[in-house]
Amino acid sequence: MATTIPQKTMVKASAKKWVYLLEEGSAQMRDLLGGKGAGLAEMARLGLPVPPGFTITTAACNAYFQEGNKFPAEMWKQVEEALAVVEERTGKKFGDAKNPLLVSVRSGAKFSMPGMMDTVLNLGLNDQTAQGLVALSGNERFVWDAYRRLLQMFGKIVLDLPAIKFEDILDHYKEKRGTKSDTDLTIEDLKAITAEFKQIIRSEKDVDFPQEPKQQLEMAVQAVFDSWFGKRAVDYRNFHRIPHGLGTAANVVAMVFGNLGPDSGTGVAFTRDPATGEKALFGEYLLNAQGEDVVAGIRTPRPISQLAQEMPAAHQELQDISDTLEKHYREMQDVEFTVEKGKLWMLQTRTGKRTAQAAVKIAVDMVQEGLITEKEAVGRVEPGQIDLLLHPRFDPQAKEKAILLAKGLNASPGAAVGMAAFDADTAEVWGKEGKPVILVRPETNPDDVHGMLLAQGILTSRGGATSHAAVVARGLGKPCVAGVEEIKIDAQARQFSANGQTVQEGDYLSLDGGTGEVFFGELPTVRPKFEEEHDLQMLLAWADKIRRLGVWANADYPRDAVRARSFGAEGIGLARTEHMFFEEERLPLVQQMILAASEEERKEALDRLLPIQKEDFKGIFRAMDGLPVVIRLIDPPLHEFLPRYEELVVEVTELKVRNEDLPRLAEREKLLHAVEGMREANPMLGLRGVRLGILFPEINKMQVRAIMEAALEVKDEGVDARPEIMIPLVGLVQELKIMRQLLEKVAEEVTAEKGKRIEYKFGTMIELPRAALTADEIAKYAEFFSFGTNDLTQTTMGISRDDAEGKFLLHYVQEGIILNNPFQTLDQEGVGKLVEMGVRLGRATKPELKVGICGEHGGDPASIAFFHRVGLDYVSCSPFRVPVARLAAAHAALGGERGDI
Amino acid sequence: MATTIPQKTMVKASAKKWVYLLEEGSAQMRDLLGGKGAGLAEMARLGLPVPPGFTITTAACNAYFQEGNKFPAEMWKQVEEALAVVEERTGKKFGDAKNPLLVSVRSGAKFSMPGMMDTVLNLGLNDQTAQGLVALSGNERFVWDAYRRLLQMFGKIVLDLPAIKFEDILDHYKEKRGTKSDTDLTIEDLKAITAEFKQIIRSEKDVDFPQEPKQQLEMAVQAVFDSWFGKRAVDYRNFHRIPHGLGTAANVVAMVFGNLGPDSGTGVAFTRDPATGEKALFGEYLLNAQGEDVVAGIRTPRPISQLAQEMPAAHQELQDISDTLEKHYREMQDVEFTVEKGKLWMLQTRTGKRTAQAAVKIAVDMVQEGLITEKEAVGRVEPGQIDLLLHPRFDPQAKEKAILLAKGLNASPGAAVGMAAFDADTAEVWGKEGKPVILVRPETNPDDVHGMLLAQGILTSRGGATSHAAVVARGLGKPCVAGVEEIKIDAQARQFSANGQTVQEGDYLSLDGGTGEVFFGELPTVRPKFEEEHDLQMLLAWADKIRRLGVWANADYPRDAVRARSFGAEGIGLARTEHMFFEEERLPLVQQMILAASEEERKEALDRLLPIQKEDFKGIFRAMDGLPVVIRLIDPPLHEFLPRYEELVVEVTELKVRNEDLPRLAEREKLLHAVEGMREANPMLGLRGVRLGILFPEINKMQVRAIMEAALEVKDEGVDARPEIMIPLVGLVQELKIMRQLLEKVAEEVTAEKGKRIEYKFGTMIELPRAALTADEIAKYAEFFSFGTNDLTQTTMGISRDDAEGKFLLHYVQEGIILNNPFQTLDQEGVGKLVEMGVRLGRATKPELKVGICGEHGGDPASIAFFHRVGLDYVSCSPFRVPVARLAAAHAALGGERGDI
């Protein structure tokens, strides 16, 4: 087992350096020093004003756990040596009664992590040093305030006592003074509070607050380490898949005080506006305060711009440092600072979080400023974020004031405002009258689509993120809040109640599809226009240069195709022909075709459908002039086009019992029997897709005729139509072989009739496990594959999308039985294996095979990274997801994740 | 492209030997000479009396097609050379007017194949040779009869004229003579007929019947070759997957005549009785006849035993030859012979077809006679055949006389007789009264099981071979005829009609589940007893020594387990706990548990179910003392235990409209809402299996407690119980991990309570593609796998068993889109790939993993061969299939198919 260890590593390991002075570290040492330590070190190296201090490494933390919660040998000695350096630099001594050094201890892991110990300030204070500090500072109030803060933080964070115990005492004294502000408390009050705080520690923990400063420090460092395995931190790491072996560092830094008077203060700042991305210092500060006061919300902080008036020099220095940090890090920073008697000290710097809008603007601006490359800019914007940029948004301030009725599933993002309508017909009527409508239904089904088309948003009380409502809404780019169980819909009374409020039909509602919130009343919205999002357009243009994956869109109507193309789609990856069938004027024809008693009757209905389908296709071909359009032949079971069995049963039973209107009874009974004959126990696995084509070839033949006639007719307009005809649900190679032969004949017939020729392709969906497993065979008869990952997920996992989400899938996600909803992010270990196999086998037979994916996963960044990896040619997603997919595809080409979470 | 051709092949190829004299061939040259040619050659080699002749090879046939339907060079020359040898041996000359040689031409491929040209006799006759033959034989009638036969066969077979044209003329002359027998026709009649036959050929084909014998021969050989690509032959080969490149041989043999007078005759014989297997010459013959007369049915042939009286010498010689052939081939033979003026000639020998019963007896007898080894005996009996041996059978003569009502799907074999009952309750009542019942339903569902249990057989008008009725019937070993569309059931009137007959409730019906026939009235049946099938028992004992695969049985009740063990099952591979729930007295408890409003109510119901389940398990453990019992925890969606939604809707609607019995309305409405809340769009992919366990762990916990208590309690009786607890529908490793931990705790609790210990295992079903794809992960938490190939087939192929068969699957099988019903024979290319992967991945993680299969495929011979190949440890099937599986497993171990079809 002897391996050669590089010389450098050995020295480091044998040296056992557990402690680094700030200036000994750097930004690159994030693994060892944690994010906070590395930031402080880097600032120290840059010569920025950072108080003296040192970092105890993550390696020390890990050694601590390995040795049974004991500090590793030498560590404390190194701490004391480092402390000595800090003492020397500050000219103060830790625990010295006359000239005491105070320090802060803060945790800092590689990734910022909620649930870990944060900060203990003012360590080093005790009854004696407090006296010395009074003498030294001449500010007794400051010292007692600092002492009570130490006791409070130490008690809460190090000794794990309930915060409320300390706050109650503080409140009691403030009440006595008739004030709400700490600053109104007197020195005597603070002394008394300090005494009471000590008493709490004594009575609750059966020990005295340690007067020995080094013991304080030791306990604080130990608390930092212990917090690494605190329950919330462990849960957080499990959820985010952060390894438990990383450990946390502990940062010990000399205190500087923002609460030494009106020439002192403390604040936080972003180097650019994190909401808009504007290039200007942004943040807030408080004079005469310690850090925690800024966020505590007791005093209202001032905007950073005012600092220019109040402390012009400090403001200028902060601005300069901000520029230095941005140039150095080539990234927007989020900093903490303190001004002690006019002198600026930097206490933290890290990459700043930002809104989607800001992320795009900053990335683009920084390229233009020469700070970063186009590739870097692309890599810095999370694909998921930009989705929101294209949906209407509510004014955040308006939201705060509004009445929140309930919260449900954020099924399709964006903001929608409209009048509640309780059925699709009403929604349609109102919509046509130009009224804004929110369609409110227990759940939706294809019968509701005509109402959904005209609604601003959709609200359902049942169903999950891939329920019919959610899927259609996302497809339409309409906001949807689904599965809001708190709302009780009374369809009879045409109202629902929630949160004590009753909403009548016609009342205004506002839905935030991004958060799942449902508000009463009309909230103001803004709808961004893609054409006007110049920064985003530029960023996506750069992304297009980087990505290898094509980005196509799923679009069933010409209007969707137009939109998709405007968003940058390079083709239509899925045009569902049956969605056209559901439209109101067509449904009776479709029903006539299905229920046809004779061959002629069926043919008659098909003949009337043909010109309608043709017009649809023409529209799509015009919109996608010169680009491929994949048209899927009819897929759903035919009974989906007929009235619902459940409703027919009720109607027939009623008519029977009443024994009136016998002609209608006869008609309805006949229909009921027809529907009954077509019912299926598991329609998902039933007579649909290519199986319909095999049994009723005339439907597919009509569709192919419509496609070919449309393509050849628009040729006269100068439109270059490129149809790719897709046969769905193939599981057996014979199915594809037979259908392709049959349909190719139709295509050639039409070509001959029209006397001209266009290019067309035949291909298939790979949406059954068997298709993926036998893709080598299937590829013999396909010019392209398109993975239908929705159905492939259903069959591979044995989970019905329509049933599972509410019934058990969300519970599974909550319990960590599965990491993601597999209908949103592809299950790579299971379904992904089949996708990979399908690609490999298909290309083995036909290396030039074009392979795409047209399931919902085509718009999901994590899934797109996978599709890039397994070598797909393109992804196809809903038009509104096209920008997201363009960016995600570029990220995939850049090598996936950026490393920070 | 230069490859080294072995010397031997080169010689053969360059020699271009297209024609073999019979004695130049052998039984081993079946590929080249076809079955018939090889048989004749082998007899010639053995020195048996075979007329001189030769075989034109299959290679010649293939060359014929390669050269555009032309005989290959040299072939005809070789034919003429061979013919010269035949002339020499017979002392006759082909086409000689004085002493003419006549020959027969018969096709003969490697595999016997319907749809190919069969035989043309008497080639060489023409107007001149006929005269010569009259002079030679002194039998004018014989000659003209031979000539009209030649014209008839040549016209029909070589010239492809409709047979009816010739038969009409023959009938016309017979009518004129007032006879039905050819032998009553006069010489003048035959002459006139001959003239008319020539006229038909002339008028239909515009050519004269060729008078040149060599032209006759050439045309006959060409017809043999052409028939290889006749439509029926091609279809047959496609269906049976016989390569089209094999080709057929043509056998040319000197004619011998059985119609030369009362000292001549012709017949067919089996060396043993093909119905019973008894060792005695069996067959029939006609005196003064040519071969075709025996099978034509115009004259009644005599049993071969009479030949001993009529021609004792020929009979003795035939008996001796029969013994020689059996000893030589070590197999029962089917021979053709002709006696020409007292001299016996052998015209064909081949392996004889036989019934299941005969197959078993012959195989066992031949071992005892020292003819074959035990292994050979096992290999000679088709596993599928012996299934029938264990089911009741109708007397074939009684069937002939009975009224056939209709024919449906042979869903479960065997004969059943009983009174028609139109619902399960009636069937149950009558059954308990001791009356034999046939349950007649449009289709069945779990509510009907109590009636099915007491019925003799099941008849449905809807549903396929894997419909509920079919599956349950096979599981129960009860005959079932399913999907009989001709019967129109009138449930109201309690009757059905078919074939003009009306069957009232209570009328007797007889079902043949092996043929799908439904008879009116009571047909006599015999039910064989396994214990009395001594030959079968012996054969299976030999099979057991050969097979590697274990054979277990699926059994839900103690009575099934007892039967399974008596059939040789070595364990229970699947005990479905929920089938126990459906029994009448338990269902209310199960429903109470499902609908429980409170935790206590549910617990109460579970507490009452526990002792019932425990008793069931005890019974099974006692039956399987010392053998493993795999118990599957509850699997189906809970709504399957509640009244059907459809019926509730009707009832509630009726009650509502009538507005009476409001308390019942309230109660029913509540139930309806509960059922509605549980309904699923695709229950197959819904809340079932382990998902139920995760959501309602108390049910699984009760079940594991019942299993463990039962196992530990029977230990006191000296019973060695070996429970293996199986968690169904696992798709995610976490599901199994969580459930196993939970349930192992229960098992250990019970162990601690009882103060004793037994061995038990935890494992899972692999029935979802994802489970197979991630079997390496899943194996970490499973001690055994059992492939649930029913569900795995449904999900992998995306085909719902309940819906597909009637709707499209049978159509697919008919059209050759798929070769077999994948629910009967495993789809090896698709589903099989996942099975293979599951085994490989599972064993990679855990080499000692026990792997079995418990789907319907466990009893299917072709599937068993596959399971053997991929290394499963055992198959589990319904008790009645255990003997089949034992034999099939032995076949698999012997190397699969025997090579002939």
Largest interface: A-B, 56 and 56 residues
User: Average pLDDT of chain A, to the nearest integer?
Assistant: 90
Envelope shape of chain A:
elongated
Radius of gyration of chain A, taken over Cα atoms and rounded to an integer in Å: 34 Å
Q: What fraction strand of chain A?
A: 15-25%
Question: What share of residues of chain A is helical?
Answer: 40-55%
Spans of chain A of 5+ residues with little confidence (pLDDT < 50)? 1-14, 896-901
Strand order of the largest sheet of chain A: 14-24-23-16-17-18-19-15
Number of strands of chain A: 33
Structural class of chain A: alpha/beta
| Termini Cα gap of chain A | 36 Å
Oligomer: homodimer
Query: Largest sheet of chain A, described in full?
Result: 8 strands, mixed
Total helices of chain A: the number is 37
